[in-house]
Amino acid sequence: MRLLTTTALATAIALPAMAADGELTVFDWAGFEEPSIFQAYVDQHGDSPTYAFYGDDDEAFQKLASGFKADVAHPCSQMVSKYRDAGLIEPWDTSKIPNFDKLAPEFLASDVFKDDEGVWYIPTDWGAVGIAYNTETVTAEDVASLQVFVNPDFAGRTSLPDSADDVWALAYLATGTTDWDDVTDEEFDKAAAWLREAHQNVAAYWADPSEQAQLMASGAVDVAWSWNDGVVYLQADDYPVGFQREATEGSSTFFCGFVNLKDGPGNEDKAYDFINAWLEPSAGKALLDTIGYGHTSTEAMATIADEPAVAEGLSDIDVPILAQTPNDPAQREKQLAEFEKIKAGF
């Protein structure tokens, strides 16, 4: 059963849960240790890297900043400036990454990722955030609007991610802000008030997609703000799940990738072998089947363009999209602090 397998792995978050090739340690989200995604590395070295897992981006950063050692980490785009400012990462040598020029240019369109000092980030995967819902207990009309999360009819039946970026993307969209690059104090306050109201309906905040899927599969939750992978896990267990990305107010997108950690304990050449395996076109199908995400490589995406899962969870849609791209670090910290207050009931 996919849900139980993934949940079991997730319980080992932030611990070296999968010891394999001792010369490369990957600090990652649970679920990405599926060998088919980096099959070329396994073929070359005979084993997967050693994996350590974390539950959210801020947790991963704090652990690495506190001295945890790994060779590469897998943050989402909003975090890269924090890694750079803290001096935790060094540029990649793209001459060692043959498929680097196959990356879709929009994923590197920021000085945070690529500047005169080098390439600090290799974007690898992207996904959507929308409303996952039980199609047997929740109607399409119920989830036509993001206001389902503050609808009193769903008190105690919703779940939100324990991720400041995702919940603020939801709150901004629900209150009419579709770009978080230049948020006014009024927009922030309006979104915070909405998020406090949504908090009253929350049965649980999920720490990882397998937990979100388990909450829904158990019947504890009928509506969740979800990444693609939570939906994929539920579909694998034949749960009656819908994925609403076209709510009136819109939905969100994000992308993630790998950073090269300074003073990693392992073999630097193997870090490049790992990245090159991720950027093979064949990784696109494996990533889609395992996690439900899209690939940043144009060649990899071309191999899965006609897959039903792309049409369902990754296709272009005609509603506002809040793209979770790097925003003002001070604003992000303000959102993080306010989210902690909201979860605590303040």
TrEMBL record:
Q: Which GO terms describe its biological process?
A: polyamine transport
Q: Where is the signal peptide?
A: 1-19
Q: Does the keyword Signal apply?
A: yes
The protein's location, in the record's own words, is: Periplasm
Q: What are the GO MF terms of this UniProt record? A: polyamine binding
Give the record's GO CC terms: periplasmic space
One of its Pfam families is SBP_bac_6
Keywords of the record, alphabetical order, are: Periplasm, Signal, Transport
Q: Which PANTHER family match?
A: SPERMIDINE/PUTRESCINE-BINDING PERIPLASMIC PROTEIN, SPERMIDINE_PUTRESCINE-BINDING PERIPLASMIC PROTEIN
Protein name (database record):
Extracellular solute-binding protein
Which species is listed as the source? Paracoccus caeni
